[in-house]
């Protein structure tokens, strides 16, 4: 029997780097508060484009060693975020990066895009039943921007959550467990527009500037149901994590570029759409805590730079443990 922290967050992503770009602030904040943050990455990102010239030999059309290299980048990023539980779906190398939509790599035997959905989801069911997360974060059905691995990661996450709750599905993987809240990543339009205005004014080093339309999952502000604000400390951790993905991301202050060399803002606030479970919005109608409303987790929502919990009737908050299933 093992002990689990009171609050447990699971994130499902397609490639190393997606977690830091989308959820770096959220992961750093909850890890710092003592929550169990579990990252499941579905591929090694073998088909990514390599930015630094000195590492160009890693590319799939040359040495094809980018996947192994990115395992190390991801480990460094997790150290920056304070996250200790990161895994690859089915084990490292089980599924390969499928490349961009329509690329010949989509049809390779181990491409994640070709994975059998229930087989891939079963790997996630094992994780869900082990760590028993109250909250799951993944992409929207379009994967944010249409990359086949992101679409597949969404499907696997949603199917995994469904199957984990079914007692008759693979009882060998542990007792059924129902995730209380599921969120999809999104970006609030006003934040994105404001970020590009800052970027344009700042005059950064990137050869070009992206546009609002290049940012995945931009939605009208009114559709956003939860916003996690990292503050300077967790935003710095996110920035460090993004820098750790050195082959994929070039960071310049509060801005970054992917391999297209187009600058875009690095966000210290991360936005979510609640698609399963009960919203427990505070003032302004938006949740500021992904665990809001979940029994037994509220008192551990210590915030602020001191890290000191406010006494709210349940003083032991984040150190309170729950007995895990065998
Ligand atoms: Zn990706």
From TrEMBL:
InterPro entries: GlcNAc_PI_deacetylase-related, LmbE-like_dom_sf, Mycothiol_biosynthesis_MshB. One of its GO terms (biological process) is mycothiol biosynthetic process. Its cofactor is Zn(2+). The keyword Metal-binding applies. Binds 1 zinc ion per subunit. It catalyses: 1D-myo-inositol 2-acetamido-2-deoxy-alpha-D-glucopyranoside + H2O = 1D-myo-inositol 2-amino-2-deoxy-alpha-D-glucopyranoside + acetate. Belongs to the MshB deacetylase family. Residues 311-326 have a biased composition (Basic and acidic residues). Residues 300-326 are annotated as: Disordered. Keywords: Hydrolase, Metal-binding, Zinc. It is an enzyme of class 3 (hydrolase). Zn(2+) binds at residues 15, 18, 150. Its EC number is 3.5.1.103. The keyword Manganese does not apply. This is 1D-myo-inositol 2-acetamido-2-deoxy-alpha-D-glucopyranoside deacetylase. Catalyzes the deacetylation of 1D-myo-inositol 2-acetamido-2-deoxy-alpha-D-glucopyranoside (GlcNAc-Ins) in the mycothiol biosynthesis pathway. HAMAP family: MshB. GO terms for molecular function: N-acetylglucosaminylinositol deacetylase activity; zinc ion binding. It holds the Pfam family PIG-L.
